[in-house]
Specification:
Order of helices and strands: HHHEEHEEEEHHEEHHH
Structural class: alpha+beta
Number of strands: 8
Strand content: 5-15%
Helix content: 40-55%
Radius of gyration: 27 Å
Number of domains: 2
Distance between the termini: 117 Å
Number of helices: 9
Largest sheet: 6 strands, antiparallel
Strand order of the largest sheet: 2-1-3-4-5-6
Length: about 325
């Protein structure tokens, strides 16, 4: 064959392209499992950071296996819920959601026709923190992360990541621990009307108290200076996802508030009123000091007269 002909050039180029493509595909396939393991460990470390078990830097030094072992040891339960706040199903052991999966779920959440079909992941850790993901669009690409809440629906921690935000500006959502720390102690406005934000990242953040300190629990934090678009994108993402979780966290906050009331009335003495489902199973009234459990609570917790007073009221015939 004439090596100077066009036919030879086309055939030679085609063979080279096919061989290179095959080699790249082989390498990609061989590295796929390692890439997935790295991505899973990174996702887990983000959740653990948000839940307050350490810092992202600390988890980065541990290695994938150690991070996953830590996650397994501190995770209480993981499940999905629907937008009504009802549990749908338990998640398979070790299941986490990659940014790609969060992107797909984000489309469902924002689709008014499909939103009611969304199955939202919830991760409950043994330190009492409940962690949920968020996903949205920054200035140059997607942003995502995790927020951690206590039983009353107050933020206890946060961690965010991005694909291509500007270094030193929008990238601070990931790189600046002080920005993430601003979320701690804030409480989203879970009962906000549909047209209002549940949580906002805005210039100036929360209003200041008389002593100059920031007012917490108003669902607002200060935006990043020079990164308005990234801040707005992250704010929108948080608001969209928290609205999807609104029913779930509103119910948890109500239960938590009742539990606090119950513990106060049931465990501190014979108060006038007490919830029927006292978490410590002690329920007294100031009228007769009767309780709904055994004699030990009556004497130790209510200061009553002993075993007889712990029996339910009986009507004498």
């Amino acid at each position: 064959m004439n090596t100077n002909s066009n036919v030879y050039t086309v055939i030679y180029t085609t063979i080279v392209v096919v061989v290179v493509a095959a080699v790249l595909a082989l390498v990609s396939q061989s590295l796929k499992s390692r890439q997935e393991a790295n991505e899973k460990a990174d996702t887990v470390s983000q959740m653990l950071t948000a839940a307050g078990f350490g810092t992202k830097a600390e988890f980065g030094k541990m290695g994938n296996a150690a991070v996953l072992d830590k996650y397994a040891s501190v995770l209480g339960e993981a499940f999905t819920i629907n937008p009504s706040g009802e549990k749908v199903a338990d998640l398979p052991s070790g299941k986490v959601f990659s940014p790609k999966e969060l992107k797909a779920l984000n489309y469902i959440i924002k689709d008014t026709e499909k939103a009611l079909e969304a199955e939202l992941p919830v991760f409950v850790f043994n330190n009492g923190c409940t962690v949920v993901p968020i996903y949205g669009a920054g200035l140059w690409g997607p942003v995502w992360g995790y927020l951690s809440f206590d039983g009353a629906g107050t933020v206890t921690g946060a961690y965010f990541d991005h694909e291509s935000e500007t270094a030193g500006l929008g990238a601070r959502i990931k790189d600046d621990p002080s920005f993430q720390a601003e979320f701690r102690g804030e409480k989203p406005v879970w009962d906000a009307p549909e047209e209002s934000h549940i949580f906002e990242i805005v210039k100036g953040g929360s209003p200041k108290a008389a002593d100059g300190s920031e007012v917490l629990e108003d669902g607002r934090i200060d935006a990043i200076t020079g990164a308005t678009m990234t801040s707005n994108g992250l704010s929108d993402a948080i608001n969209v996802w928290l609205r999807a979780y609104k029913a779930y966290f509103s119910a948890k906050a109500a239960v938590s508030a009742c539990s606090i009331q119950e513990e106060s009335c049931c465990c501190s003495g014979c108060e006038k009123s007490c919830c029927a489902t006292c978490p410590c199973e002690k329920c007294c009234t100031s009228d007769d000091c009767k309780v709904s459990c055994g004699p030990e609570c009556c004497s130790e917790q209510c200061g009553c007269c002993g075993e007889d007073c712990c029996k339910p009221n009986e009507v004498e015939e």
